[in-house]
């Protein structure tokens, strides 16, 4: 991470951080499921070009919506 | 940060003054002491470093877990990418029961930075 990150890259990291924090609010034994899910979802777009702003912005919105959805305390596990 | 510490104290002090005017002088010094104790409890850097290292060792993504010192950098020495670093920092947050603000967390690159920040933020334990 020696290089400077762009604003958009930081936003992605913030989304990732928020996601991991949500995962930590879930029951202990299910936390790995959430972490794996987060890694998978972010990993799907790992090779997206840095300049593809519209796609990244779209994915950020999708991600934020999904965090809201998964933050609900009734949701305890994921597959 | 400090407001939240002092405000309840002030409220208690006010109550104490109204209900127990005589013991006022006895109560006040105690209230002044407690925030100071609150500070010194966690500034032991070696202890914080040890705890951070333990969290890193427990983290499943690290590739060079054998020798972690205070100079270890997450990206260079542990081979973590930016997302792994985020995950590791959240794990550290959990352990110390704190939250790095986004801006701070973006700048934390190694064990030393992290310990320094925790040592300067006494609400952690």
TrEMBL record, chain A:
It is found in: Mitochondrion matrix. Keywords: Chaperone, Mitochondrion. GO terms for cellular component: mitochondrial matrix. Its main location: mitochondrion. One of its GO terms (biological process) is mitochondrial respiratory chain complex II assembly. It comes from the Eukaryota. Pfam families: Complex1_LYR (PF05347). Residues 10-67 form the Complex 1 LYR protein domain. Belongs to the complex I LYR family. SDHAF1 subfamily. This is Complex 1 LYR protein domain-containing protein. The lineage of its organism: Eukaryota, Fungi, Dikarya, Ascomycota, Saccharomycotina.
From TrEMBL, chain B:
Keywords: Electron transport, Fatty acid biosynthesis, Fatty acid metabolism, Lipid biosynthesis, Lipid metabolism, Mitochondrion, Phosphopantetheine, Phosphoprotein, Transit peptide, Transport. One of its GO terms (cellular component) is mitochondrial [2Fe-2S] assembly complex. InterPro entries: ACP, ACP-like_sf, PP-bd_ACP, Ppantetheine_attach_site. PROSITE patterns: CARRIER, PHOSPHOPANTETHEINE. Pathway: Lipid metabolism; fatty acid biosynthesis. Its main location: mitochondrion. The keyword Transmembrane helix does not apply. Residues 46-122 form the Carrier domain. GO terms for molecular function: acyl binding; acyl carrier activity. It is found in: Mitochondrion. Carrier of the growing fatty acid chain in fatty acid biosynthesis. Belongs to the acyl carrier protein (ACP) family. This is Acyl carrier protein. It comes from Zygosaccharomyces rouxii. The lineage of its organism: Eukaryota, Fungi, Dikarya, Ascomycota, Saccharomycotina.
């Amino acid at each position: 991470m020696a290089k400077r990150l762009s604003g958009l890259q930081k936003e992605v990291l913030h989304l990732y951080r928020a996601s991991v924090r949500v995962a930590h609010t879930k029951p202990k034994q299910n936390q790995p499921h959430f972490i794996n899910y987060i890694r998978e979802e972010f990993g799907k777009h790992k090779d997206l070009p840095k300049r593809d702003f519209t796609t990244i912005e779209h994915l950020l919105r999708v991600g934020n919506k999904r965090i809201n959805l998964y933050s609900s305390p009734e949701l305890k596990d994921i597959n | 940060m400090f407001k939240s510490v002092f405000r309840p104290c002030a409220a208690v002090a006010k109550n104490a003054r109204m209900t127990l005017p005589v013991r006022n002088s006895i109560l006040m010094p105690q209230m002044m002491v407690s925030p100071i104790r609150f500070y010194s409890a966690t500034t032991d850097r070696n202890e914080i470093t040890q705890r951070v290292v333990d969290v890193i060792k427990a983290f499943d993504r690290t590739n060079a877990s054998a020798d972690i010192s205070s100079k270890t950098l997450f990206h260079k020495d542990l081979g973590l990418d930016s997302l792994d670093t985020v995950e590791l920092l959240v794990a550290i947050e959990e352990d110390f029961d704190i939250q790095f603000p986004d801006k701070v967390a973006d700048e934390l690159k190694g064990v030393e930075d992290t310990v320094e920040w925790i040592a300067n933020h006494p609400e952690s334990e």
